[in-house]
Specification:
Layout: E1 8-18, H1 24-34, E2 38-44, E3 47-55, H2 56-68, E4 75-84, E5 92-94, H3 114-120, H4 164-170, E6 193-196, E7 205-206, H5 207-219, E8 224-227, E9 232-236, H6 241-251, E10 259-261, H7 265-268, H8 276-282, E11 289-293, H9 301-304, E12 309-313, H10 318-327, E13 330-334, H11 346-350, E14 359-362, E15 375-379, E16 382-387, E17 397-398, E18 409-411, E19 421-424, E20 427-430, H12 440-457, E21 463-467, H13 473-480, E22 485-488, H14 490-502, E23 508-518, E24 524-533, E25 536-543, E26 546-549, H15 558-569, H16 580-589, E27 593-596, H17 599-609, H18 621-635, E28 646-650, E29 653-657, H19 659-668, H20 674-700, E30 704-708, H21 715-727, E31 731-734, H22 745-760
Parallel strand pairs: 2-5, 8-14, 10-12, 11-15, 18-21, 21-22, 23-30, 25-29, 30-31
Antiparallel strand pairs: 1-3, 1-4, 2-3, 6-7, 6-14, 8-9, 9-13, 10-13, 11-12, 15-16, 17-20, 18-19, 19-20, 23-24, 24-25, 26-27, 28-29
Helix pairs in contact: 14-22, 15-16, 15-17, 17-18, 18-20, 20-21
């Protein structure tokens, strides 16, 4: 007996996840045809809908194959099936897209796939050496879409009519390029151009001659702007000191290390230690820049600037493969002046008058929106995003479904590392990274992108959420939208971003450490322990506040912060600074002073007191160099001195007091290794976190701890803290889908906005 296994049945299947723009429908089509299924597949909103009719055995095999996802092209978050009556269907087809209330799913840009790379290198293939080769499984997506749905006529590829050979592949179900919207070849697609900035009057080179010229200029130590997926890169050799110094002058970037692109993982391993987790991250679809520990710095001194880490990444476009295959490792850094948006317009790049730039390698496939490279690292065995952009955006973060209607919410994020978020239903789309909104050009890009994404996602926000800071541009922009506005405290949003990722409702002990955030009392917060539940929070503990001069504007001057802290703690007598008398007089008279509980500023003070760094020439430099010394000590198995922070309680609020550490550090820094003291500071902070969490667990009856804020981009502190908390029985949650810094704020704001909407619509 077949127990009904051969009896024909019908089902409707709704597939949610990353299933659009990745060749999922053609894959479903072929799988269905191979198994003899009848029915159809189509895009509906951001999901895929399948109607399939066959024997139960065939349907079970079909569903099993979809879930198995052998080639890892797509990601299924949820798959729902419901029975249908058997109908008169003849075969299986792909039908036009349908409409739905779900948020539109816009595909992210994808790296060139292994099959295309094989064709790229095959002299007998008709796409041999084609720098724009792609198929349904790879190529640009988000950066070329002008309208939804994702069809060729709605992308910039409409500028390049298909030749007959490409059209045949595009319409053939058996082809890898069936419905591949980016399909092109050497006969009908974009082609390379090279502008020689040293001979502006010379005619531009094209195709392979353009590529050869760029390779020669780079090989001779020149700097070339190369057009990528989300904008231009400035490219040069990482081994030639003169070239790298010229690049720094071109960028206006003094000290921050440059990212380096390598042709393969095996090449990276010649320079860096690469763990299994790091290799998985390097080769993931997003192809982020991954911070890797260097074995030995064999590059020019100005490339990594004494960093222990190399920002390494792999080629994700065919052109990058061609360049790195010929030249080896290359610095690839965003083509912009530091602080400005990445350049994407050809006219802007080609008209740039810069004495350090030798040429421009470009093409005429338009870039619709600027998207920087993403940056990540492995912390405590799992990925941590530092910058979430190309490859991740605009894939949504999937939230818990709510029953109280579909909240359409806009969250503005913060002003530093700006990124906004839009949500409807259970999907939240965090925008690409923009930079700092104090720059006019960044603000304009932010505003333009808000209009762009709300249109593409088909969202009309009913609620706007912003930071409580009264002077944030992002908050003022939110007010201009003429929507109901919910203001959220900065550190509450940090913790809420972790709760959103992990589906936590609370109560949660939230530890939010960063450089600056506007507190409910008008002071600068940044070393916070919050009890979070629903839309509410209680400030249960914090770093003991100390006065600093200049408020938010004091962030660059680590030495001034050290003088401020030491004077407040009565420890400044042995710390030299020619401005000390002026600074202490201002503090005593409370002139231009503000109280801060910022852990970020405390890291600056510690770096300065230990004579490691005195100035943040780029954001977080003092803290990064303090961590560097601690990491060196950790690698050398140097035992740190025990210099614990003090915990006190005042008016029912716990306070973490670092004075004992600084008192000991001032007294013993001349006879104790700097690295040991730096590591001791990290241990003291981690132990202070664990001790306060133990006290709060007893008071608030929760063992869930969420860590967030920019300070937790510090690997040493984060790993020490997670270890100590887990040893004491806590469940520890951290950001994995968005950065712990301000780039993840908007997700937390969305979480709180949805909770507010739910409570308001009960």
């Amino acid at each position: 007996m077949d127990n009904g296994k051969n009896k024909e049945t019908a089902v409707k299947i709704k597939v949610c996840g990353i299933v659009q723009g990745v060749g999922f429908r053609p894959l479903v089509y072929r799988a269905a045809r191979e198994l003899g299924l009848k029915g159809w597949v189509r895009n509906v909103g951001g999901d895929v809908e399948i109607v399939a009719q066959a024997s139960k055995t065939a349907l079970d095999r079909f569903l099993s194959d979809l879930k198995e996802n052998k080639d890892q092209r797509y990601e299924i978050i949820n798959m729902e099936t419901e029975g249908l009556p058997v109908s008169d269907l003849e075969n299986f087809v792909i039908i036009p897209s349908g409409e739905a209330k779900e948020i539109s799913m816009i595909p992210a840009d994808l790296p060139v796939c292994p099959q295309c790379l094989k064709e790229l290198a095959d002299p007998l293939d008709r796409r041999y050496g084609n720098p724009f080769i792609s198929c349904m499984a790879c190529g640009p997506r988000y950066t070329i879409i002008e309208e939804m749905p994702y069809d060729r006529d709605n992308t910039v590829m409409k500028d390049f009519p298909m030749c007959s050979a490409c059209n045949k592949e595009y319409t053939s179900p058996e082809s890898r390029r069936f419905h591949a919207q980016t399909i092109s070849c050497n006969d009908c697609g974009p082609y390379l151009l090279y502008q020689d900035n040293r001979q502006r009057e010379a005619e531009e080179l094209t195709d392979r001659e353009a590529l050869k010229k760029a390779i020669k200029v780079l090989g001779d130590g020149g700097i070339v702007a190369v057009k990528g997926i989300g904008g231009y890169h400035l490219v040069c050799s990482p081994f030639l000191e003169k070239s790298v110094v010229r690049l720094r002058q071109c960028k206006g970037r003094e000290e921050k290390p440059f990212a380096v692109m390598f042709h393969s993982v095996s090449e990276i391993k010649k320079y860096c230690d690469v763990s299994r987790e790091e290799e998985i991250l390097l080769t993931s679809k997003a192809r982020p820049i991954v911070l890797l520990p260097m074995r030995e710095d064999l590059m020019a001194p100005s490339t990594n600037k004494k960093s222990l880490y190399c920002g390494a990444f792999l080629p994700y476009t065919p052109l990058q493969h061609l360049l790195t295959e010929e030249l080896g490792p290359l610095i690839m850094t965003s083509a912009n002046t530091s602080g400005q948006p990445i350049i994407r317009e050809d006219d802007c790049m080609c008209s740039l008058s810069d004495p350090y730039l030798d040429g421009v390698l470009y093409h005429r496939r338009r870039i619709v929106r600027s998207v920087d490279d993403s940056v990540a690292k492995i912390v405590a065995g799992s990925p941590q995003l530092i910058r979430r952009s190309r490859g991740y955006v605009p894939y949504p973060v999937f939230l818990q479904k709510e029953k109280a209607g579909e909240a359409e919410v806009f969250a503005a994020g913060g002003d530093l590392k700006a990124a906004f978020c839009l949500s409807r239903g259970a999907k939240a789309v965090v925008s690409q990274y923009f930079g700092d909104l104090e720059e006019f050009s960044v603000r304009e890009e932010y505003k333009k992108s808000y209009k762009d994404l709300t249109r593409l996602l088909n969202i009309t926000p009913k609620l706007a959420v912003c930071d409580q800071h009264p002077n944030y541009y992002s908050s003022r922009f939110t007010q201009s939208l003429m929507l109901p506005v919910m203001k959220v405290q900065h550190h509450h949003a940090h913790i809420a971003s972790v709760m959103a990722e992990h589906g936590l409702k609370g109560p949660v002990i939230g530890v939010a450490f960063d450089g600056t955030g506007y507190g409910t009392d008008g002071s600068i917060w940044g070393g916070e322990f919050l009890i979070c539940e629903g839309t509410e929070f209680v400030r249960a503990a914090h770093l003991r506040p100390f006065p600093i001069l200049g408020g938010d504007q004091s962030m660059r001057d680590g030495k001034k912060t050290a003088v401020c802290y030491l004077h407040h703690a009565g420890l400044d007598s042995s710390f030299p600074d020619e401005r000390k008398q002026l600074i202490t007089a201002a503090l005593d008279q409370r002139i231009n002073t503000v109280l801060t509980s910022s852990m970020g500023r405390l890291f600056d003070a510690a770096a300065s007191v230990l004579q490691i760094a005195h100035e943040n020439r780029y954001e977080g430099e003092c803290a990064i160099l303090l961590e560097r010394e601690a990491e060196i000590a950790r690698r050398e198995h140097i035992k740190p001195p025990s210099l614990p922070f003090l915990i006190t309680k005042e008016d029912g609020v716990l306070k973490l007091d670092p004075r004992p550490f600084f008192e000991a550090a001032v007294n013993c820094k001349d006879r104790t290794k700097t690295g040991a003291l730096a590591l001791g500071f990290h241990h003291a902070a981690a132990e202070g976190i664990a001790e306060i969490c133990e006290i709060l667990r007893d008071c608030h009856h929760t063992s869930d701890v969420a860590l967030s804020g920019g300070v937790f981009q510090n690997t040493v502190l984060t790993e020490l803290t997670i270890t100590l908390l887990k040893e004491r029985g806590f469940h520890v949650y951290v950001n994995r889908l968005v950065p712990p810094g301000d780039g993840g704020l908007s997700l937390g704001q969305i979480y709180l906005g949805r909770e507010h909407w739910k409570e308001s619509n009960r």
